Amino acid sequence: MPQTELRYSSDLALDGAEILTRIEEIILQHDGGAGASKGRAYPAAAFTHTHLMATVSLLPKPHRDDAFVDALKNDVFAYLAELLPRPCWLSVDVNFSGNGYQTEFLE
Question: Which superkingdom, per the lineage (predicted)?
Answer without folding.
Answer: Bacteria
